[in-house]
């Protein structure tokens, strides 16, 4: 397999579409990654249960949609208010669950070695996966009725217009075809039975013109570059951006945010300086889990993957990779990492190696960490001697 | 005892215009001094003068931006720390860095291990050479603990030691590498006056009986003035004075640096 | 002379013990019934997990390099053997044990090369960054295998012939334990511990930190590779799904639960943690009432023990008695609640199968053990007679060190 063949096999007109898909996927990763990054920032703990919080958020959205009458097979019409209710309830429940996990599983471990909290985190994650499977419906995997989404259409955009020469040729071919068709119709109407040969000749002519026209039309379609994005995914992107801006505002310009930064800079000093560390940690888990809940609701509603209790596993791992890639503890880093991860994944699919889409995240991560051991935007602190 | 004895006339350690900068900050600026074999040498200066950074350059934690560091006439600037330890320079740390969960004896044996001769496989198979070597290293370590009055706590976890003993253990550990040059970074910090006097005698004994050259960083003026025969004073990364304690004590530049200029 | 007698004697004892175990399990000892296939499999897998946990302990516990992708080395070993056995065994004409031992060596080399590749980034990365790279490396290897049709891809590959040498499995486990123990008994082990404690200070004391870290990775992964070789021949079938992240996590859990750095702890935790979910398979279905009552009982007992640990500072014996008391109290509470809750129709009617419950119980055990004893069951202790004596309250004679 040489490079030339590889390149020839690629369809460059679909690349922009794939990049957009990547950014949409990355937005979800970024939302989850923000939760990882905030928690790591204050506690230096990899919260392995974060993916499971995401999973619970998806289930909450499912149950709320059932409660609002959008059970399987329902054909009711929805309004955007339903979506907002789902989003808020998912965020709320996830926030509470996150706080409870911190309170009962992580807080008692805080004075212990970090690896002990890590094992607890793995335990909580397994408990939610398998314990959830006892109670939550998971076989067959349910999915949210897409009727709950009132905005069904697709946003279409033409990035590059069709080729002018082709357009002219196609118009000419269309005229030629209409003429041939008219001639054939006129001939066959004139004498339906007689002179088989001449009718047949005209018919062949008409068919040939038809083929030429269709051919040109197809080439014309492919010559432009167009984007199709379902409106639902546009909503995902919009909501994600709004949530990230809110988080940034919170962290940079409020007193709670200042306390959060102080705790993540130096846990012990912050507590000596009168910051209520426990409250800040609780708040961090609340915010991080709420973001995961928002991501879960949007992912489950607009992308519509069936739910199982392992729903959070893959996105969780990838978001964590995204957080490390961007420099764990760093907010813009998490967003950058998430987007990069999403784009890398769709690019690999576009290249035709879809079976490696789960590996690419780690390959990028390893390569980046070899050159920048602190992640893309993280600082590699040198230990003071 | 020392691996390479210094030829007559050459300095054991020589800093020649040693400079290091971190971004815009010049932490050590063109510092030059020489230690002869058997010296008891002091390095003093106010906080942030670049003393510890000097140690870090000498021991290979940082690579000097420019200038040279010569050990027995051989340039060692930028050599990795572990190789410098093998070349015969050992140090203690200002912010005690013992191997916390290891016992006092194990801390010292770890440092003595750089002279090991048996291979890893001998250890993995628990073969006689490795066993004998381990015993040998333990005996040597015990002798050092005797010198520093730590023999009675040999089996105690090093993090359980009181502060003063931790400082002494740092010295024992550094000595276990059998260096030609011993760098002590604020060895008396946090000690009471009685312990300081004890320490001073210990350092003298180390120099006289163990054939080591000693370079000390210390804040306590009385300690340095009484202990050292030659002193270099740094301020803001630059050398402002050097000479014997009496000379340094009366140097107006030194007084200005410590008391602030009027 | 005495040294060699003891050494050779203990080696003979180890081999003899393993052979005896093999004969007992396969019913070759008269008067002892053969253990069924499932039971044999458990004995073998337990041995492999001991090897895996103890070898990860070398990297993680002793050298302090946070590696959470140990299944990768296990997989490299298994697939190396799988591929070679299918391709060359028939032509080699070697007897079974010789072939398998040869495969263990080759797989160990292959896995240690992989260990070298992972160990190299560890020179620049620390803590969690290293952890995520080792995790990623494991996933990359698994996905690569999944996409290689030559070795069966995601469907897995059948390994022929099937060799079920139970004695060899346990001999490997014992060798692994012995090697780690030997390392720590000589001065050669100290640089490994020193790197865990403080890299900068180790380096200043002449320890070649790079070499120590890479050695730990190479040694640890070699044992995992050898274990993989035995797995491939024992199961006669390997697939990428046998080497997922979960497997790495379970091995890591064994190390931490046993007490990070303790060889004894890793080995014992490996056996217990492996048997717990397997034992739970045979459990009878549990009603909703029983489940809720169980959860309440366990929570009560844990709360009691937690409270004791932080608030009671009496003698060790009294503490032990109180811990037992809180466990008994937990059981009593559980019984009372299950009697009360049996009258709630909704709870009494629902049934939970053992198959679904076992992982839940596994996870809960993990969390509870960590909450109650975060330093691991053995903490940093090793099994030795003097330690047992100290534990029983008698003063052991302190080691004499020649001055």
In short:
The complex is a heterotrimer of chains A (385), B (262) and C (403). Helix content of chain A is 71%, strand content 3%.
List the helices and strands and how they pair.
The complex is a heterotrimer of chains A (385), B (262) and C (403).
Chain A: H1 3-8, H2 15-43, H3 50-67, H4 80-106, H5 114-135, E1 154-160, H6 164-190, H7 196-223, E2 225-230, H8 231-253, H9 255-265, H10 267-272, H11 277-303, H12 313-326, H13 331-350, H14 357-371
Antiparallel strand pairs in A: 1-2
Chain B: E1 13-22, E2 25-35, E3 40-44, H1 51-58, E4 66-71, E5 74-75, H2 81-87, E6 89-91, H3 104-112, H4 120-124, H5 128-147, H6 163-176, E7 181-185, H7 193-210, E8 213-217, H8 221-227, E9 230-235, E10 238-243, H9 245-250, H10 252-259
Parallel strand pairs in B: 3-8, 3-9, 6-7, 7-8
Antiparallel strand pairs in B: 1-2, 1-4, 4-5, 9-10
Chain C: H1 2-25, H2 37-62, H3 71-92, H4 96-119, H5 127-146, E1 157-158, H6 166-185, H7 190-197, H8 199-204, H9 209-235, E2 237-238, H10 245-258, H11 263-280, E3 286-287, H12 288-311, H13 316-341, H14 345-349, E4 351-352, H15 354-372, H16 385-391
Antiparallel strand pairs in C: 1-2, 3-4
Helix pairs in contact in C: 1-6, 2-6, 2-9, 2-10, 2-11, 3-4, 3-5, 3-9, 4-9, 6-9, 10-11, 11-15, 12-13
